[in-house]
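Appendix C: a fully annotated inverse folding record. The material below is reproduced so that readers can follow the format used throughout the book. The structure is listed first as C-alpha cells, followed by the designed sequence.
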C-alpha cells in the first residue's frame, strides 16, 4: 500500500452509515460508480469489479469460452494465480519464457503455440509493460485471444494505451500490495460484449439475476458460476484510491527516473530494458548484471549499507519452479475436476520440468529490484544512490 488517508475513512463511514451497502443499492452505488470511473480511465466499454485479480482472470477466461481441451500460454515469471486461473476453468497452462524486459517473450510464445492454444496471457509484472505490439501480431495471425494480467500494473500504459485495455480483456488487482488498494479487490475490463456478458453471469451466478436490473440487455443464457461479488465498502475505498492514482504514478516514475539517472550508466549498474519506460508504473527499478554472482554481491553490499534490494528468483510463488500445484499436476482436489486428468486435455503441453525455461531462470538470478517509494524526497533519493554507488 502506498497512500491512504482521511478521504478513504470518510468514504467508508459514509457508506456504512447509509445502512445500504450491498453492491446493488439505492444509496451510494459506490461499486457501480467505480466501474464507470475505471471504464473511463482505461478506455474500455465494460468493467466488472470483483473480489480479486484471480477472480477477474478466471471470469475473463470463462468469457472467452476457455475450458477443457484448451491451452493458455503464460510466462514462467508471474504469480501462481495467473496459472491457477487457467486450471480453474479446466484448461492447461503452457509455460513460456520471459525476455530481458521480464515479460512474456514473443519469440517463445510463437514456439509454444499448438492447435489447442486459445489464449495468450501477457503479465505486466512489477508494472513492466509487455510487448503488446508483437503479442497482438502473433495473436491476430493465429486467431488467438489476448488476456492481459495487469494485476501488478494498475494505471500502467503501453504506447499511450492503458495496460489491461489493449487485448481482448484485462484483469486488475487492488489487494494490499498493488498500486491502488482496498485491501482486496479486482476488476475485469473488456470491450467485447460477449466476454462481458459471460463474465457478468459467471462472477455472480447466484445473485446477478435477483438484484437490480443487471440482466437488462443480456443475451447470453444464464449458467452456473461462482461468487466474486464485492460490497459497496470496497467500492467506496477504490473510488478514493482512483483519485490518488495519477499523482501516485507520477511520483513513482519521477523517483524511479531520478534514482536510475544516479545509479545506472557507464561503470555503474545497468538498467534492464523496457518495452515502454514511460508507461512503466515506476514501482520498481530493475538492474541487470552479467552473472548471478555479481548480482548477489551487489545486493549484499547494498544491504550492508542499509538499502534492501530483491532478486526475483527468490520471490517464491512468482517463479514457475515454485508453482507446486502446477508442477505436480494437481489442478483440483477431486480427480474428475482436475484438468490434468481430464480426457479432453490428453496430449496437451503439460510435460513440465524444473529447467524448461532456462532463460527465465537465468534472468531472474541476474536481476535486482529496487522498490520505489513515491514519498521519497530528493535528499532520500540522493542518499540511497550514494549507498548503491559506493
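Designed amino acids, in order:
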Amino acid at each position: 500500500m502506498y497512500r491512504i488517508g482521511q478521504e478513504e475513512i470518510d468514504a467508508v463511514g459514509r457508506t456504512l452509515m447509509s445502512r445500504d451497502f450491498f453492491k446493488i443499492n439505492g444509496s451510494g452505488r459506490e461499486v457501480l460508480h467505480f466501474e464507470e470511473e475505471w471504464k473511463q480511465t482505461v478506455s474500455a466499454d465494460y468493467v466488472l469489479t470483483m473480489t480479486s485479480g484471480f477472480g477477474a482472470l478466471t471470469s475473463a477466461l470463462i468469457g472467452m469460452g476457455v475450458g477443457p481441451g484448451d491451452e493458455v500460454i503464460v510466462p514462467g515469471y508471474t504469480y501462481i494465480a495467473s496459472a491457477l486461473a487457467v486450471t480453474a476453468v479446466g484448461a492447461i497452462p503452457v509455460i513460456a519464457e520471459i525476455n530481458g524486459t521480464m515479460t512474456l517473450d514473443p519469440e517463445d510464445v510463437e514456439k509454444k503455440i499448438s492447435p489447442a492454444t486459445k489464449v495468450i496471457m501477457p503479465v505486466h509484472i512489477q508494472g513492466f509493460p509487455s510487448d503488446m505490439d508483437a503479442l497482438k501480431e502473433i495473436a491476430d495471425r493465429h486467431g488467438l485471444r489476448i488476456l492481459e494480467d495487469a494485476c501488478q500494473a494498475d494505471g500502467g500504459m503501453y504506447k499511450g494505451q492503458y495496460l489491461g485495455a489493449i487485448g481482448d480483456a484485462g484483469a486488475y488487482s487492488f489487494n494490499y500490495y498493488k498500486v491502488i488498494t482496498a485491501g482486496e479487490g479486482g476488476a475485469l475490463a473488456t470491450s467485447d460484449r460477449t466476454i462481458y456478458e459471460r463474465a457478468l453471469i459467471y462472477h455472480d451466478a447466484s445473485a446477478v439475476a435477483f438484484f437490480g436490473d443487471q440482466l437488462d440487455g443480456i443475451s447470453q443464457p444464464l449458467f452456473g458460476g461462482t461468487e466474486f461479488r464485492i460490497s459497496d465498502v470496497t467500492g467506496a475505498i477504490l473510488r478514493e484510491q482512483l483519485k490518488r492514482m495519477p499523482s501516485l504514478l507520477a511520483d513513482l516514475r519521477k523517483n524511479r527516473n531520478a534514482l536510475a539517472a544516479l545509479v545506472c550508466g557507464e561503470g555503474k549498474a545497468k538498467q534492464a530494458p523496457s518495452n515502454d519506460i514511460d508507461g512503466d508504473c515506476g514501482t520498481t527499478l530493475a538492474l541487470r548484471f552479467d552473472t548471478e554472482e555479481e548480482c548477489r554481491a551487489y545486493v549484499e553490499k547494498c544491504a550492508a549499507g542499509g538499502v534492501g534490494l530483491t532478486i526475483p528468483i527468490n520471490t517464491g510463488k512468482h517463479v514457475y519452479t515454485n508453482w507446486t500445484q502446477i508442477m505436480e499436476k494437481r489442478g483440483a482436489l477431486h480427480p474428475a475436476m482436475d484438468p490434468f486428468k481430464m480426457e479432453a486435455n490428453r496430449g496437451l503441453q503439460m510435460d513440465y520440468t524444473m529447467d524448461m525455461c532456462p532463460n527465465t531462470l537465468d534472468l531472474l538470478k541476474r536481476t535486482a529490484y529496487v522498490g520505489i517509494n513515491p514519498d521519497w524526497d530528493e535528499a532520500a533519493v540522493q542518499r540511497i544512490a550514494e549507498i548503491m554507488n559506493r
